[in-house]
Amino acid sequence: MPTHKLTTVQSQAALSELNTGLPTPWEIIDGKLAKAFKFKDFQQAFGFMTMCALYAERQDHHPEWSNVYNKVAVQLITHDVSGLSEKDFDLAKKMESFAALHKA
Ligand code: H2B
User: Fold this and answer.
1) How far is the CA of 66 from the centre of ligand 1 (A)?
2) How much is the pLDDT for 2?
3) What is the pLDDT of residue 68?
4) CB < 8 Å & 24+ apart, contacts of 16-25
5) Ligand 1, atom 14: closest residue by C-alpha
6) Distance (Å, rounded) from C-alpha 67 to C-alpha 38?
7) What ligand 1 atom has the least distance to the C-alpha of 81?
8) Could you tell me if the CB of 82 is within 6 A of ligand 1?
9) What per-residue confidence (pLDDT) applies to 54?
10) Counting Cβ atoms within 10 Å, is residue 2 exposed (0-12), middle (13-18) or buried (19+)?
11) Is 67 helix (H, G, I), strand (E, B) or coil?
């Protein structure tokens, strides 16, 4: 299925939908969908990252991220379209569900 770059208006609408009900929201920073997750400890953070990594590999859509102990800073972008696509919002939603399985 081809991937389409979302317009600014479409990205803002998708961001609002993604953030509905979330205590800590995602933001669009420098054209990337970004969020910093914080967990109880490194084990929880790495468990979260492992679930995300396996999903990302299945989808062939990979995050930019960094980890320091209990924090995981995530930036999502679709390199193939040089911008945001539905794939980024899909991955962000999955990341939220994986984060919910790990201790904050
Ligand atoms: N991940 C992300 N975030 N954006 C992409 O455009 C992308 C990817 N493209 N993972 C995939 C891999 C592409 O390079 C391969 C060839 O399908």
Assistant:
1) 18
2) 85
3) 98
4) 17/89, 18/89, 18/92, 18/93, 18/96, 22/96
5) 80
6) 10
7) 6
8) no
9) 98
10) exposed
11) strand
Contact 33, 88 (CB under 8 A): yes
Please identify every stretch of the chain with a pLDDT value under 50, giving residue numbers as ranges.
Answer: none
CATH architecture of 8-99: 2-Layer Sandwich (3.30)
Block residue for tokens 């679709």:
78
Q: Which tokens go with 35?
A: 């969020």
Hey, where are the domains in the chain?
Answer: 8-99
| CA separation for the pair 31, 60 (Å, rounded) | 20
Ligand 1 contact, 78 CB (< 6 A): yes
Q: pLDDT tens for residues 27-56? A: 999 999 999 999 999 999 999 999 999 999
**What was the pLDDT predicted at 38?**
98
Residue 59, SS3 per DSSP: helix
Q: Which H/E stretch holds residue 73?
A: strand 71-76
